Amino acid sequence: MSIRNVKGSARWWALAGCLVWFAFTLFPLYWVAITSFKSPTGVVGGPTYLPFVDFEPTLTAWQELFSGKRGEFYNTFVASSIVGVSASLLATGLGAMAAYALVRFTFRVQLASGLIFFAVALGGYLLGMHSLGLGRAQALIYAFVAALALSLASDRIKMPGPVLGNNDIVFWFVSQRMFPPIVAAFALFLMYTEVGRLGVRLVDSYVGLTLAYVAFSLPIVIWLMRDFFAALPVEVEEAAMVDNVPSWRIFFGIVLPMSKPGLIATFMITLAFVWNEFLFALFLTNSRWQTLPILVAGQNSQRGDEWWSISAAALIAIVPMMVMAALLSRLMRSGLLLGAIK
Length: 342
Known about the structure:
The protein is an all-alpha fold. The protein is 74% helix and 2% strand. The chain contains 16 helices and 4 strands. A two-stranded antiparallel ribbon has the order 1-2. It has a two-stranded antiparallel sheet with strand order 3-4.
């Protein structure tokens, strides 16, 4: 057998393997789609695979979903879209600025100042609660402001102990994602409840859920964008500095346009996390700002899980992300390849 025949055979085997894998990954989406068009008896009566062949499709699940019998679908979809897009944009913008600063500037933070922040925050909170008679929310706010001011002031004074650099700061950001999400969600719920007693509503509100998602997404944004910015040529920025261009104009006028593919890729990854997030929405919303994952999880009754309704709601939750990924696929691929090369 010639080398050309061997290469041709290997190519066909590779193509066959790719097609098998494509079918394997596409089948769950196909199964969700056809299940949404099945009747209750068609679902519980055993597996069926082909519409009009081994089952008669029906629009019952879709009619119930759009009519409001299965929850406020329109309000939930709008809430998911508004919160998801705004939180992803805000997290990408703030994270990009933080990542750029960590790449182009040198930071030195004393560990002792961090310990001072922790001690003053905890001690001030307990002091305000038990000695000054303040409420939990007031004690928390005053303690945080005092701890932040003292830690920033103490960091300007040389103190004993290790000094943390840029890599340590990046690790601290990424380590925030190591905490169990249930801990953060429960703590946020308690904090939002206490702040609500001061007249600022954060539970079941746009601001409260968006801020939670921004804080939840910032570590991954900083981690991704740091590699994108590090891959950009610094000579362009240095040339602008020679011409006395301000730093903010360099960032917004030069760096961001050059890193557009990376920004798009990071935005899409962040939006996927926020769009599919369940735990924070479960804890921090009641009805008005519930998101699509909550609606999907609520498609059941006393008879158990109603898979025809779950499939219809899940398909609605999946399609927008697929459409957006298809529209931005070229920029996403360019951004992901840029990060991979780095």
